[in-house]
Amino acid sequence: MEERIGQSTIFVLFASKASAASHWVNFEIDRARIRSILNNKFKVLIFPIDTKVSRSDLPAWMGELWIPNAGQTQRDIARYIRNYIAFQEILESPTGRGYGRGKLTDISIQSFTNAVVTNGTSPNVLIFAGINGIGRRTFARIFVEQAFPASGDLSAGPQLSLPQFADTDDLYRALRQEVDATFSVSRFEPDRQIFLALSIPEQVDEIINQLKHFFDLGQAVTIITRNGIFEDRGILKVWSAALFSRLASIPNAKLLIIADRQAHENELLKLPNVIQFSVPPLEDGDIRSIIIAMAPIFGAKAVLPRTENIRAIGGHPAIAKMASRLIAQQGIGIFEDDPRILFDIQDDVIKSSLDVSALSTMEAEVLSILSWLPQLPGNSLTALFTARHSISRQQFAETLSGLILSCYIFPIGENYSISPAIRTFFRRAYGYGSGDLRKALYEELRGEWEKTSQDSDQRAELFDAFVFMSALEGGTLPPELQPLLLASTLQQLVRETYDSGHDDTEALERVVAWGNPARTMRMNETTREEILSYVARALIRLRGRDTEVDALLEMFLSRGYRSYHYINGFYLRRRNQIDKAIASFLEARKVRKYLRSVVGELADCYKIQAMWPQLRALIREQASYIDKNPYLLDIYVGMLIAEKDWDAAEAAIRRLKAAARNDGRAETRTASVMMQRDGKFDEAAKLLTQILSIAPNGRDNIRRVRAIAAANSNDLSTARLDLEHLKARPNGLESTKHIEANILLVEGNYDGALQLLTGLRHPSAQDRLLEARILDTQGHNPSLPLDERDKLKLRAAEIRARYSIVDEFDLEL
Questions:
Q1: Whether 370 contacts 399, CB under 8 Å
Q2: pTM of the shown model
């Protein structure tokens, strides 16, 4: 007992009449007193759990350590302790107090004070907006400390993570789980249905009843979301505006919102109790200070990159911490030796940091698991890894601490989540990881769910994680559990499943199976539209499901869904009705739903129809947005390759690789450069073989290009294997004739190759360019008369002139 107190950093006493009279408890109190004298970092927390106990029952030195308002439930006290520990770790961290936020804090407190004077009341809804990873939560903590110095317990309140398509029941469930110490997802479900039947004002009243639990304890509630309080058009959701308005009448309320965007000023005119702060990137000097301060944590001396490299970090404290860890692991040369890193230093820092060889096995596995799920309970993560690697909880805690310090993951209450930027890069680099690890996690979650079902202690995050892993492993949710699924969770799940394999028939079938219930589930129409739009796209990609697509489109039209024109264009484009698709996409541009996808699809249609003036005009119009739109950026890369502007093409490919996609497009464009500029068909085939093993999307497209590369490097066996695989895909017989013609060209069967191409119903620009290559090859055949050779070369030149801005090896359907 004495030894364990000596090894501790915090001593927690749950005070009652019985514990105060206990000989052994008093022995522990004495040991804690000695420990606190010897180590000023040793902390003592006292929570009364008995209404009869008072300060006089304990030694006098403990009086000032008494915490009377932490709450009465186990969850309240556990949360207080957890937040206290986290806060102490932040204070001891080299960057815990935040760098470069002094001026912003002063300006923000002035704005807050002015709002108090202007409105005659203190704002109690505070929105902290900025791009992810910029330090919004850190600044919110600093601001609250300085703006409310007398309210020391504000930071002890819960942090709730809400998804993009959050509705009132998401917030209600999260609050109920924090308030109810015996919360169970199954027991909560009947109450949720009653809650959903209420009007919006009634729902808001019930939410406020739950919020008051924390406000009465002097605690703030923090909601962490991307745009979950906003409609997709950027205005506040009806329920969030109603909630903010009602909170104006509750003086002790404090609601903090961490979001990606700010509310429109016109909306705030009607909400004087709401104030918002924009959290900008840090200055270069602050980034330099973070890199220096973090170096000893990673076991290295402080070494600074050049000024231009620091500037390229873009003011992101999270990227600065990753850069510091990367320098500690690989040396300053990682920045100095390759000047190209300046183009995409933020992305290259993340990508290099995520090199599995630079991570321990456990670190890589933790990141892999968290990349699959929105968040995961810490107990589940700990149970899996302590058993899997035969280590102690303390050893695993140290691994988690290192990942948190590096900004790879972050805690949300009792749960852990991966940084969104890290999720994107991890998926792109390593796909969905080890099947063995996925199975181990699924079995762990299933076992925990079955156990908690018996104990009636079903945590919401455990249920959501179990649902996600069920979908990832190809299963379905048992009927008795389906009513427990929130609409926002279903939207995330359907989106993740769709994005996991655009040409994976099984994944697309799962999208349909999981998403179809949204037709009749109780949910708001925006979320229903979002889910069913993925179902429609999955059905379109599956082919042969036109009746179901037509029924969905009729439903979209009758309900006035803004995505109708985009989905209709997507449908027509993949049925080779390109002119009609263009008309639909032009209508979709006016509506501005899924705008990036609409513009990318429209550009692709212009390319297919050889509408070069329209394509060039679209590219010029979108010039400032190209790097933010991977669809358009991909087409732009193809134009640069066709124009043989190799340096610009390679720079654009690096930006395409950093874009939020994981479909191998950047690699196929790289292969195209290798084939057309360098003539290295064999190396291009090797690159695409490597990427095939990890890319969850675009695999058919990668195989198309690999088949061409393999054929032109005389590896006809690989080319034919890819050909047979692609023939078995939907519309395979028609789409693979280009590859067959290329193989015949390599074999010298020019007439057979041309016959295949001329028999195509809808020849593409790439088909015509292949025809030009065949004609050009024939034109160099010395056995033919000169005039015939000249005619063949002229025909080839005419075709190339018409398709001068098309990449010949862009073979995506």
A1: no
A2: 0.82
